[in-house]
Amino acid sequence: ILLTSGLVLYPLNIPNYIACRVIATFLCSGEKEVDLAVQSAKAAFKIWRKKSGMERSRILLEAARIIRERKDEIATVETINNGKSVFEARLDIDTSWQCLEYYAGLAASMGGEHVQLPGGSFGYTRREPLGVCVGIGAWNYPFQIASWKSAPALACGNAMVFKPSPFTPVSTLLLAEIYTEAGVPPGLFNVVQGGAATGQFLCQHRDVAKVSFTGSVPTGKKIMELASKGVKPVTLELGGKSPLIIFSDCDIENAVRGAMMANFLTQGEVCCNGTRVFVQREILDKFTEEVVKQTKKIKIGDPLEEDTRMGPLINRSHLQHVLGFIEQAKNEGAKVLCGGDLCVPEDPKLKDGYYMTPCVLGNCKDGMTCVKEEIFGPVMSILSFDTEAEVLERANDTNFGLAAGVFTRDIQRAHRVVAELQAGVCYINNYNVSPVELPFGGYKMSGFGRENGRVTIEYYSQLKTICVEMGDVESVF
Ligand SMILES: NC(=O)C1=CN([C@@H]2O[C@H](COP(=O)(O)OP(=O)(O)OC[C@H]3O[C@@H](n4cnc5c(N)ncnc54)[C@H](O)[C@@H]3O)[C@@H](O)[C@H]2O)C=CC1
Ligand SMILES: NCCCC(=O)O
């Protein structure tokens, strides 16, 4: 299945169901391979940067069309790659081709401005690409992350070398294959495989102009430090511990659905999840009862089956890490209202899978570890509150600032509350929808820079100012 626009190493034997077994073996790219990938991207950049926006747009639209056409196949590979349900993987593939279409639409209208100066002189600006950009991805949305980074990068005239997480190396190769088929110059979108060392080689490379990273806060700090040595701009999409505030005047059915969306997509392994669910005391019991009822109904199993809604976690150590948080929560006084256990599906082929039952924790308090730290698993913590002022202060009392949500029927309160929330992405009466037209990114330690939306053009381009003299030079000497 693999044919790419640049340098890759080939996986072996992809099976057609999910079990705990090796699905692909890769060699990690070392310094030499990283250099080859960057050099081939650099050569492609020389061709690509000269193309008009319309020409780039046409190729991106063709790539979007191919992704749409191959959606089911890519979603199946993503499910095998990551473990998320195929139902959800298809939604990821949708936001991927939509992202390419969106930036194809912007490519042709990118430009600078003309400014009149005294005496007939004038100036103008050109919006120019940066060069070879690096994308480094996390394992939770492999194909989507690669698309969200490469689409704006390529639309602006850049080349990209992308490194997926070593836990999910496969699906990004399909994106490279599709870009090639759509007509990008060979090497424009290169994939290298590997872990931290490969990532470091990329960030340090002298011919790399920018790094866009999605992953954890500790790695984000290291990448920022490496990039700073070459004064390279970075985009950091990091972790979160986002609040979801449910006021008693909300539509409770929608609020319950919102809380489920905020916590259990992709086995809870989502950076913007609203895992601190603050519920106004008057509706705490009713809300909790309904959330627990819905959580117990989530179908866990083979993620390739159409009705499965929760697959296995990414790997054994992460599963143990998540279960460890639940143990600690119990020790600190939280009450497990449902789930939180290892789960062995009945299907014998799944018996070694990294499954757990989705968990709702009640009686949570602000100081508990489960409320303070990112768990990155299917664990919802419910907290009660009384007043708007109180909940705002508690919601903002975190070093993270990726997302936040509010459910209320009071439109004035909704806008007043989101204006005070310290988060880059806020939802009113919904959660975890990702329209590509809207910017996505964090405040505080959740990172900076944005993906999606018009603004991302600014993160993948630079402005050149040209000052044109129409008269004589008036020298001060
Ligand atoms: N804000 C956002 O959009 C998202 C944030 N995340 C965050 O990512 C974390 C989970 O993802 P992980 O893959 O475990 O994160 P991670 O930080 O361990 O790894 C992310 C990527 O960085 C690479 N890497 C690791 N060390 C590196 C180094 N020293 N230099 C260069 N590259 C290096 C890894 O190989 C991987 O490709 C969670 O904290 C989550 O919140 C995940 C998805 C989206
Ligand atoms: N679809 C939202 C992406 C969030 C994440 O990458 O974790």
Automatic annotation (TrEMBL):
Protein name from the UniProt record: 4-trimethylaminobutyraldehyde dehydrogenase
GO MF term (any one): aminobutyraldehyde dehydrogenase (NAD+) activity
Location of the active site: 237
Assembly description: Homotetramer.
Entry-linked Pfam families: Aldedh
Ranges for domain Aldehyde dehydrogenase: 21-466
EC number: 1.2.1.19, 1.2.1.3, 1.2.1.46, 1.2.1.47
Pathway: Amine and polyamine biosynthesis; carnitine biosynthesis
Gene3D superfamilies: Aldehyde Dehydrogenase, Chain A, domain 1 (3.40.605.10), Aldehyde Dehydrogenase, Chain A, domain 2 (3.40.309.10)
Leader sequence segment: none
Function: Converts gamma-trimethylaminobutyraldehyde into gamma-butyrobetaine with high efficiency (in vitro). Can catalyze the irreversible oxidation of a broad range of aldehydes to the corresponding acids in an NAD-dependent reaction, but with low efficiency. Catalyzes the oxidation of aldehydes arising from biogenic amines and polyamines.
Cellular compartments annotated: Cytoplasm, Cytosol
Matching PANTHER family: ALDEHYDE DEHYDROGENASE-RELATED
Entries under CDD domains matching the protein: ALDH_F9_TMBADH (cd07090)
InterPro entries for the chain: Ald_DH/histidinol_DH, Ald_DH_C, Ald_DH_CS_CYS, Ald_DH_CS_GLU, Ald_DH_N, Aldehyde_DH_dom
Catalytic activity: 4-aminobutanal + NAD(+) + H2O = 4-aminobutanoate + NADH + 2 H(+); an aldehyde + NAD(+) + H2O = a carboxylate + NADH + 2 H(+); acrolein + NAD(+) + H2O = acrylate + NADH + 2 H(+); formaldehyde + NAD(+) + H2O = formate + NADH + 2 H(+)
Keyword Protease: no
NCBIfam families: PRK13252.1
A GO cellular component annotation in the UniProt record: cytosol
Protein keywords: Cytoplasm, NAD, Oxidoreductase
Sequence similarity: Belongs to the aldehyde dehydrogenase family.
